[in-house]
Amino acid sequence: MPDGSSFGGARPTILVVEDEAPLLTLLRYNLEKQGFRVEEATDGQEALLRVSEAKPDLILLDWMLPAMSGLEVCRQLRRRAETRDLPIIMVTARTEDGDAVRALDTGADDHIAKPFAVDALMARIRALLRRSGAAAPKGVLAWQDIQMDQDAHRVMRNGRKLHLGPTEYRLLEFFLSHPGRVFSREQLLDAVWGRDIHVELRTVDVHIRRLRKAVNGDGEADVIRTVRSAGYALDREE
Description:
Elements: E1 13-17, H1 21-33, E2 37-41, H2 44-53, E3 58-62, H3 70-79, E4 88-92, H4 99-106, E5 110-113, H5 118-134, E6 140-143, E7 146-149, E8 154-157, E9 160-162, H6 166-177, H7 185-193, H8 201-215, E10 224-227, E11 231-234
Parallel strand pairs: 1-2, 1-3, 3-4, 4-5
Antiparallel strand pairs: 6-7, 7-8, 8-9, 10-11
Helix pairs in contact: 2-3, 4-8, 5-6, 6-7, 6-8, 7-8
């Protein structure tokens, strides 16, 4: 059974922000069973306070909360330098088209709709924690003016520190390992999200857009090349 030992012996802390008591109890039970430490908050203000007091390793954030929505909580966390890269999974009962993209555009790293299978949620949590550096690889990757220190989990371009979310970091890490090669959305999903995670193809486009925004500064060339009907590559346009 997967547990905290999957992350080098540490027990990652999950902050569950949920106002439905039965679901909160269910999530705590299953997360602790998997070896995670669990903190709770039942509204947005309490969530922000708990994060300020002790930063968790990941937030499981309900969209529909009293007084302050999960989207607003996500926005506020992304505005703070200390929580800009904090992994966030948005959990919601909303199923309308575009909700997943809206959650991602607000800054969430992943999105899952209620009702969900507990095993699927746990797989997403473990994948996101791995992408956030809980099991960081070793060494330095470099391409042209971009350097990624995998030990320090730091990315620089032209001496400028880049602020990347966990998924954007993993995308760039994958591209840096295969510069110039074009990857389809399906290939990127398999490599970055994992084969056991069901994610819509358009999710890749959202994270590519966020990666571009983070990597390409004023006056700098766009290093993420879009290849029509094929996919994306770490490359410069000719």
